[in-house]
Amino acid sequence: MQVAILAGGLGTRLRPLTLTVPKPMVPIHGRPFLEYQIEWVKQFGFHRILLLTGYLGEQIEEHFQDGRRWGVSIAYSRESSPLGTAGALKLAEHQLDERFLLLNGDTYLPIDYGAMARHFEQSDGLGLMTVYDNADKVAMNNVGLTHDGKVARYAKSGGPGLTHVVAGAYLFKSAVAERIPAGTKSSLEEDLVATLAPSGELGSYPVSQRFYDIGTFERFALAEPILGRPSGSPCCSG
Q1: Separation between Cα atoms, residue 105 and residue 90, nearest integer Å
Q2: Residue 133, C-beta contacts closer than 8 angstroms, at least 6 positions apart
Q3: Which of 146, 165, 98 is nearest to 126 (CA)?
Q4: Among residues 42, 141, 176, 191, which is most buried (max CB within 10 A)?
Q5: How far is CA 205 from CA 28, 50, 115, 216, in A?
Q6: For a pLDDT cut of 70, what percent of the chain falls above it?
Q7: If you write DSSP's letter for every residue of the chain in order, what string do you get?
Q8: Is the pTM of this model over 0.70?
Q9: What is the pLDDT of residue 229?
Q10: Contact, 191 vs 86, CB < 8 A?
Q11: 44: Cβ–Cβ under 8 A, 6 or more apart, which residues?
């Protein structure tokens, strides 16, 4: 299965680091963050990668090239101006496989993506979203689920009835791109999820393994020791 990685954000909360380096290329232990993501998903059979780049995207393309060095095949879709996470996905519509894993380029979620893909094969919706049970309160709850485990609602600012947090990974059918308007800036969670949830087309995949992101300096500091562990040691729970 293909994996698409959203790697085009401006990374404004990591400035000045991201003034000259795109956020997915910020080094941790001497290696770009994006390398850790690619090496993790590779072990579950995801060898075809589509990087959705934008801001300073040429640095990502120059570093990874065709992916051969990492034992994968890498293609690119680069936005010329910011389109948001859903807009970047729409731009790459013609490059998407019938089913694909989608990751946020600043999030590290060390779970068994093969198990998640097998679960998705048995579902009838357009997508499957990882949701963290948030037992340790790593963030504000922003997802509400139905009694049968589908995503009922997403609210960035939180609110009553929200029990989980988006964990940064999705599985989608390519037809999901048809729900995204072309040529406009739009958000994966705030626009696309908001469209799919009311119709029951987005399932949830609860995980108890916490996710790590590098979106702020505080979160970057939490991710750094995790990514410094020997390969494979953080995994894996569903």
Answers
A1: 17
A2: 163, 164, 206, 207, 208
A3: 98
A4: 176
A5: 28, 23, 10, 25
A6: 96
A7: -EEEEEE----GGGTTGGGTS-GGG-EETTEEHHHHHHHHHHTTT--EEEEEE-TTHHHHHHHHTTSGGGTSEEEEEE-SS--HHHHHHHHTGGG--SEEEEEETTEE--S-HHHHHHHHHT--SSEEEEEE--TT--S---EEE-TTSBEEEE-TT--TT--BEEEEEEEEEGGGGGGSPTTS---IIIIIIHHHGGGT-EEEEEE-SPPEE-SSHHHHHHHHHHHTSPTTTT----
A8: yes
A9: 60
A10: yes
A11: 112, 113, 114, 117
Please identify which residue in the block is written with the tokens 């509400």.
Answer: 144
Nearest to 173 by CA among 98, 95, 121: 98
Integer Cα distance of 95 and 177 in angstroms: 11
Q: Within 10 A of 208 (CB to CB), how many other CB atoms are there?
A: 11
pLDDT at residue 233 tops 50: no
